[in-house]
Design a protein that fits this description.
single chain, alpha/beta, Ubiquitin-like (UB roll), Alpha-Beta Plaits, 4 domains, 7-stranded mixed β-sheet, 5-stranded mixed β-sheet, 22 helices, 28 strands, metal-binding, Mopterin_OxRdtase_4Fe-4S_dom, translocase
C-alpha cells in the first residue's frame, strides 16, 4: 500500500485510488464540484487543487492517482498539504473564477440551503468580487417536466452529462462550444427519455438543474425528513420522504450501496403528488347502485351481513402490489377464521409456490451480486422499465468488463442501454438453451458466475410454472449454482410480492388463485371478494359478487366496490416489505392518512371484531410478533440470508412442456402502473411525453 504524508501525518492508503479519495479516507475533506465517486473523472472545476511538495504548482487531486506520486528527494513518502497557504490561495482563486459569471440568485434559487457552491463559497470564497464586467447569460433548456433549468448558473462540471452517458446509458446531454460560449444542452430540444433522468438534480452542485415539480414549494429547513423505502417497484430503493404539515413535498434517494447506490427512478422520486389526489378519506357504501359516504360502523355492518350469510368457500381475497406484510398477514388470518382457502397475493397470475422453497421466487444473486456476474440471460423481462435502478447496475457491470459482458435476451426487443444479443421470442428458445442446443448455453457454461433473470412476462402466464422450471434447469446445467453463488433470479415488479409469498398468502387446500377467484365471481360461485389494494385485475369480470375494496386511492377497485374502506399509503404507515432479493425493509410514517382513513391492519382488526371473529392481536407489536412466528425471515430487517438452493435443483427435474407463445411486456405504461402513479399529474405528463416520443420515432417502446 502506498504511503502518503497528509498534513504532516503519515498514512497507508489503498492502491489505485485518487488523491482526493485518499484524503477523504483519512478524514481530510477537499472541496470539489466536478468529482463524484460513481462517475468518471473529468477534472473540470479545479476546486480540488492541493499542494504536493516537490511539484511546481498545485495539482488537481481528483485526477492524480496516489500511485503516480513520487517520494521526496530524501526518500520520504509523498507529502500533501491541504491547509497550506499555496493550497488556500489556489482554492480561493478557483472559487473567485467560478463566481465571475454566477448570478446572485441565492434568495430565489431552489438549491438555496443545500447548494454545494453556496457552502463552499462560504468556506473558500471572498466577501467581495473583483470582476466588474457584465456576467454572461445562457438560454435555459427544456429537459422535460421533471427538470427546471437555469443555465446561467452552470459551472460546467459535466456531472449531468457523465451521469446520463455512463449510468443512465442515454447520452442526451452534452457540452458544446468553447470558452464563454460553452453550454450544456440536449443538442435537439426535447425532454430526457431516461427513467433515471431526475438524478441529475441531485448531482448538480449549483442551481442550474433543479426539480421543476418542487420549484418554490419549500426551503429545506422547513421540511421533516423521514427515512423510508420506495414501493414503486420491487427493488426497495432507500428514500427520504420530505414533508411539511399534512403533505409530502418531495422524495429523495438515500445512499444504500447494496440496493440502489444513490440513485432512484423518476417514478419513485416524483410520484409524491399522487399521494394527495384521488384519495379515499372516508368509508363508502353502495346504495341503490351509487356509492355514498357512510360511517365505519355502517360499512362493517354491511360487510358482516354479507359474510355471515355466506360460507367460507364462497369468500375470496386478493392482495395488491403495494400491500405491506402486516395487512396481508391480518387478512390471511381473517380468511382462515372465516374458513376460506381462496386467497392470493399473485395478482398478475404468477405460478410461484412457497412450498417449493424461498429460493424459487427470489433474486438469489442479489442486486449487488450483479457486479460479479460474467454472463446474463434475460427471460421475458425489460429491466430498464421494470427496475431502472437494477438495470443501471447491469450496465455498470457491462462497463466494468469494458463491454465484454455477454447478455442474451429472450422476449420482446427493447432498449436496455447496453448491447445484448436477442436470442429468440419465446419458450422454444428457452427450451433449446435448457437442452444445450443453443450456442448461448455454452456461453453460460463457460462463465464462472452466470445469471438467469426471469421477468414477469415469463412467469405470469398460464405456463409460468414450466417457464420457471426451465430457468431452473438452465441454471443447474450451466453450473450457475455453486459455493457462494446462485444464478437463478426472479425479477418481481410488485413491492408486496415477496412478503406475500413468505407469508403463504396463496390458495390453501382446494383453494382458488387469482384467476380462479375472478372466474368464480363471474359465474356467481363467489359471494364476497375482498380486494386489499388490488386494482390490476379485470373488474368487469366480477359479475354480481359483493366487492370490498380496501385501499388508499379511488382507482379501478374502488369504482367497482360495493364497500370502500379507506387505508393508508406507504408514506402514512409503518409497513414491512421484502424486495425482489428477499431483503426485508420497513417504511416509516412521514404523515398521517387523510380524513377518516386508517392504517390497514387496524381496519382488518376492527372488521374482525364486527364479524365476531376478533384477530388475536391488539397492537402492531403483537401483530408483528405473530407474523414473525409464522414467517421468521420477515424478522430479519435488512439482513440478506441466502436461501437454500436445493429446491432449485429439485425444481429443474420437472418435465416442462410450455406453449410456444412469445413473451410480451409486463407493463403497458411504466409511469401509470399502480393507483398512486395513476393519480399523479407528473406521471401523466411523463406518460404523455413518452407516447409523443414513440409517435415521433415510429417505435412502440
Amino acid at each position: 500500500m502506498p504511503k502518503l504524508i497528509i498534513d504532516g501525518i503519515e498514512h497507508d492508503v489503498p492502491d489505485g485510488i485518487t488523491l482526493i479519495q485518499a484524503c477523504g479516507l483519512v478524514g481530510v475533506e477537499i472541496p470539489r464540484f466536478c468529482f463524484h465517486e460513481r462517475l468518471s473523472i473529468a477534472g473540470n472545476c479545479r476546486m480540488c487543487l492541493v499542494e504536493v511538495v516537490g511539484m511546481p504548482k498545485p495539482v488537481a487531486s481528483c485526477a492524480m492517482s496516489v500511485n503516480d506520486l513520487r517520494p521526496g528527494r530524501d526518500g520520504t513518502p509523498p507529502t500533501i498539504n491541504t491547509k497550506s497557504e499555496v493550497t488556500r490561495r489556489a482554492q480561493e482563486g478557483t472559487m473567485e473564477f467560478l463566481l465571475v459569471n454566477h448570478p446572485l440568485d441565492c434568495p430565489i434559487c431552489d438549491q438555496g440551503g443545500e447548494c454545494d457552491l453556496q457552502d463552499q463559497a462560504m468556506a473558500y470564497g471572498f466577501d467581495e468580487g473583483r470582476f466588474k464586467d457584465n456576467k454572461r447569460a445562457v438560454d435555459d433548456k427544456y429537459l422535460g417536466p421533471l427538470i427546471k433549468t437555469s443555465m446561467t448558473r452552470c459551472i460546467h462540471c459535466t456531472r449531468c452529462v457523465r451521469f446520463m452517458t455512463e449510468v443512465a446509458g442515454v447520452p442526451e446531454l452534452g457540452l458544446i462550444g468553447r470558452g464563454e460560449d460553452a453550454e450544456i444542452t440536449t443538442y435537439l430540444e426535447h425532454g430526457l427519455h431516461s427513467n433515471l433522468s431526475a438524478n441529475v438534480v441531485d448531482l448538480c452542485p449549483v442551481g442550474a438543474l433543479t426539480s421543476k415539480p418542487y420549484a418554490f414549494q419549500a426551503r429545506p429547513w422547513e421540511l421533516t425528513k423521514t427515512p423510508s423505502i420506495d414501493v414503486m417497484d420491487a427493488v426497495g430503493s432507500s428514500i427520504r420522504v420530505d414533508s411539511r404539515g399534512k403533505e409530502v413535498l418531495r422524495i429523495l434517494p438515500r445512499i444504500n450501496d447494496a440496493v440502489n447506490e444513490e440513485w432512484i427512478s423518476d417514478k419513485a422520486r416524483h410520484v409524491w403528488d399522487g399521494l394527495r389526489t384521488q384519495r379515499l378519506d372516508r368509508p363508502y357504501l353502495r346504495k341503490d347502485g351509487k356509492l355514498a359516504p357512510c360511517t365505519w360502523d355502517e360499512a362493517f355492518a354491511a360487510i358482516a351481513d354479507r359474510i355471515k350469510s355466506s360460507s367460507g368457500a364462497r369468500f375470496g381475497a386478493v392482495a395488491g402490489n403495494l400491500a405491506a406484510a402486516e395487512e396481508m398477514f391480518a387478512l390471511k388470518t381473517l380468511a382462515d377464521q372465516i374458513g376460506s382457502p381462496n386467497i392470493d397475493c399473485r395478482q398478475a397470475g404468477a405460478k410461484f409456490n412457497p412450498a417449493l422453497g424461498r429460493a424459487t421466487y427470489l433474486f438469489n444473486t442479489t442486486i449487488e451480486g450483479i457486479e460479479d456476474a460474467d454472463a446474463i440471460l434475460l427471460v421475458g423481462c425489460d429491466p430498464r422499465v421494470e427496475a431502472p435502478v437494477l438495470n443501471a447496475r447491469i450496465r455498470k457491470r457491462w462497463k466494468q468488463l469494458e463491454g465484454k459482458l455477454p447478455v442474451g435476451l429472450i422476449g420482446t426487443d427493447v432498449d436496455l442501454t447496453y448491447p445484448y444479443q436477442r436470442l429468440g421470442a419465446g419458450p422454444d428458445t428457452l427450451m433449446d438453451i435448457a437442452d444445450g442446443k443453443h450456442e448461448f448455453a455454452q456461453v453460460l457454461k463457460d462463465a464462472e458466475k452466470p445469471m438467469v433473470i426471469l421477468g414477469e412476462a415469463a412467469f405470469a402466464r398460464p405456463d409460468g410454472y414450466e417457464i420457471l422450471a426451465m430457468g431452473a434447469k438452465i441454471v443447474t446445467e450451466s453450473g450457475a449454482i455453486a459455493e457462494g453463488w446462485n444464478g437463478f433470479n426472479v425479477l418481481h415488479t410488485a413491492a408486496a410480492r415477496v412478503a406475500g409469498l413468505d407469508l403463504g398468502f396463496v390458495p390453501g387446500d382446494k383453494g382458488l388463485g387469482t384467476a380462479g377467484i375472478i372466474a368464480a365471481a363471474g359465474k356467481g360461485d363467489l359471494d364476497v371478494l375482498y380486494l386489499l389494494g388490488a386494482d390490476e385485475i379485470d373488474m368487469s369480470a366480477l359479475g354480481n359478487t359483493f366487492v370490498i375494496y380496501q385501499g388508499s386511492h379511488g382507482d379501478k377497485g374502488a369504482h367497482r366496490a360495493d364497500v370502500i374502506l379507506p387505508g393508508a399509503a406507504y408514506t402514512e404507515k409503518e409497513g414491512t416489505y421484502a424486495n425482489t432479493e428477499g431483503r426485508v425493509q420497513m417504511t416509516a410514517r412521514a404523515i398521517f392518512p387523510p380524513g377518516d382513513a386508517r392504517e390497514d391492519w387496524t381496519i382488518l382488526k376492527a372488521l374482525s371484531t364486527a364479524l365476531g371473529k376478533p384477530l388475536p392481536f391488539e397492537t402492531l407489536q403483537e401483530l408483528r410478533s405473530k407474523m414473525y412466528a409464522a414467517a421468521p425471515q420477515l424478522a430479519q430487517l435488512d439482513v440478506l440470508e441466502k436461501a437454500d438452493s436445493g429446491p432449485i435443483v429439485k425444481f429443474a427435474s420437472h418435465s416442462a412442456k410450455p406453449n410456444s407463445e412469445p413473451f410480451g411486456l409486463s407493463m403497458e405504461d411504466y409511469y401509470l402502473s399502480n393507483p398512486i402513479a395513476r393519480a399523479s399529474a407528473i406521471m401523466a405528463s411523463l406518460s404523455a411525453m413518452r407516447a409523443d416520443a414513440e409517435k415521433a420515432t415510429g417505435t412502440d417502446g
